[in-house]
Task: structure prediction
Amino acid sequence: MLSFLERLQRKPVAVRKRVALVGAGAVTLVIVLLWLASLAVGESGPQRAVAKEKGPIEAIGESIGAFVTDISRVVDTMKASVGGTFEFYNASTTPIPEGDKGLSP
Result:
C-alpha cells in the first residue's frame, strides 16, 4: 500500500485527482450497499407490534381538545357554584311585607 501511494505521488495532479475521485466513489458505493442491505434485513426480520407514533399535528389536536374539555369543565363548575349561591340567597331571604320597607321610624 505504501508503494502505491509513493507511485501515486509521482504522477501528475490530474491523475491523482482521478484516482481520488474513483476511490471516494468506491467507498461511497460500499457504504450505500451496506445501508441497503441493512434495510432489507430489517424489513424481513420478525415483525414486532409497534405502537404508531402520533405526528405533531395529531398531538397538537389532542392537546387542544383536552384543553377545551378542561375549560368547559371549569366553566360548568363555576356556573354550578354561582347558580348555587344565587339559589341559596333567594331561598334564605324572606320577602319584605308591603307596608314595611325595612326602615325604622
Remarks:
- The helical segments are 2-10, 13-44, 56-92.
- Residues 1-43 form one domain.
- The radius of gyration is 41 Å.
- DSSP finds three helices and no strands in the chain.
